[in-house]
Amino acid sequence: MAFTQSGVYTNASIVDTQGQRFDLVTERLGPLPVVNHFLDTLGLDALLDRFVPTTDGRCQLAYGTALGVLVRSILVAREPIYRQQETVSTFACEVFGLEAAQIARVGDDHLGRALDRLFDADRGTLLTELVVKMSRRFQVRLDELHDDSTTVRFTGQYRRAPSRSGRRGRAAWITYGYSKDHRPDLKQLLVVLTTSSDGAVPVAFRSADGNTTDTTTHLETWQELCRVAGRSDFLYVADSKLCVTEVMEEIDHGGGRFVTVLPRSRREDGQFRRWLQGHTVDWELVIDRPHPRRTRAPRDRWWVVRAPLPSLEGWPVVWVKSALLAQSQHQSRHNRIAAASEELEALDRILLTGRGRTPKTPDQIQKRIDAVVRRLRAQDYLVVEIRAEAAHRFRQTTRGRPG
After folding, report:
1. 326 Cβ neighbours under 8 A, 6+ residues apart
2. Which runs of consecutive H residues, i.e. helices, occur in 121-217?
3. What is the pTM of this model?
4. Are 84 and 74 spatial neighbours (Cβ–Cβ below 8 Å)?
5. Taking the chain (403 residues) in consecutive chunks of 10 residues, what is each chunk's mean pLDDT?
């Protein structure tokens, strides 16, 4: 047996003493030998067989084996379920954990029944054991975990897609909600992913109804991470949706720690901005590194300062200033002011000529101005005044040459 760099191995039989010709068999491996090494290290196949047992003797393909085939196929091909047999047949059957006779049984019926059994299984315990093995085997640190959520949109009606209940839980509901993809016309699901701080290794993943708000998912996610990490004093990092008094107090009472972003709508934000106008801040430089994308560009510098007053709940607030973010905001502000000035100058020319569909009354003109500055977010930087200038026009009252 000989391996090549292209992910193909050649299996050749030895030539016998009578000089008979040997058979040459070439099969595709791809990255599956490396994938199988990590899956075997984690013991995924054994976990699937234990949590999704095959109790029906008529089943020609074990549920754990079918799920293992689907996992490997997603990693190397990402084809739909109805094309799994075509995908598996292009590889060596051994790398999928199959025998040659089992390839014909890898169809959407067998994989669909295996997924149904997986839904009814204790998936929470399955994922917990898998993550614990991963952290112990590969020394993944669980002392700092980062959580974020997004939406997955679906094209189609999905009239019969309500949330259905099984023996182990309830399926997520595909429905309308706040679309982070800016597609409110499509239904969606909310997916929540938590990763470790060293290498962004996935630690927890789950889906929720499409109309679920992010503020209601953090507490359930944190409780699941406590079971995975085996403790509650890890640092939980999330976005501004975590900044809810009830959720933060629940995590604090449970012995947890968290870092979140203070929303602009909080009262502390306005208080600090007003305090900045009359005080000198001693910013402390904490990060100084080269630009992450360009060599001849300003350095990436970060400063921090602790706010003089804590939050409403009593927790410390640390303000952060970034040099690159300030530069980006300055450029964006300049572009918005320039765009608003151009549109207002064009409106002024239209008003002077009086051509086209021009606003006639001062109220109509003010609405047009407010719409421009609001759309370009320039209301804090531009002051627009409406001034009426009298224009004298002379008209001859009688016929004939003017006198």
Report:
1. none
2. 123-138
3. 0.76
4. no
5. 50 57 77 92 92 85 91 88 88 88 86 89 87 90 92 81 58 86 89 90 89 88 90 93 92 93 90 87 92 88 91 90 92 94 89 74 87 90 83 76 70
